[in-house]
Amino acid sequence: MARRATAGSALTRPAPAHWPGLNDRVWVEVQLPDLLGGDLVRVPTRVEDTSEAGLVVAAPSFRGDLQVVAPGLAVSVCWAGQRGQSRQEFLIAEVVRRRVPAWELAPCSDVVVEQRRRYARVPALGPARIVPVAGDPLAAEPGPDGAEDEPVVLAQLVDLSEGGSALSVPAGSWMRLGRLARVHFDLDGYPVDQPGQIVRSLNALDPGHLEVVVAFSDPVPAADRLRRYVMQTQIRQRRGGDR
Prior knowledge:
By secondary structure, the protein is mostly beta strands. The chain is built from two helices and 14 strands, in the order E-E-E-H-E-E-E-E-E-E-E-E-E-E-E-H. The relative contact order is 0.13. This is C-di-GMP-binding flagellar brake protein YcgR.
């Protein structure tokens, strides 16, 4: 069972290794009450502090926050971890009013690693270009438009699915867990331009490269073409056409 912290708990002991780290980008999900529309709000923020007791995140702003945000409110926190997209349920233990408002969050569930194989994936070949997304809070030193200071990364496709892609990229680039990225490649002569988030990064056989997994962000305009490509590749594999 996950240990539940109480309001005002001192954040002093080391945080669990599977939690996001200081300044990491996370997403907070809050269910609004019916009186405010009943929507599920999902907003980005960053980690201000961590410990065994819980997380401290910068207080995100959203419609209705002044009416619903208070100690005891249940929230979900999502992040890109070493094992993939992770999620954990928390309660707001304390709302801290300071220059940068923050929420102290107490865990009330275990971490759940969401299955990345929601979609079938198949091997893929071909070049790709990966560019940073303007406004990404994890960008080291964004230029005037939030992206120009980081170069285009020339990559090679490794596999494809309707929901994402694995790519081989040079080591030492700006690409790391949690970064937002836009992937450009051709699929059977059709240009695909799709934003997403890096949810996994592994060492490749070539020490000069990494294999990164980019989970596509909804909507995916090329979803039908990707699905058709996956099905056709699976058929060829069953027939022995792809070895």
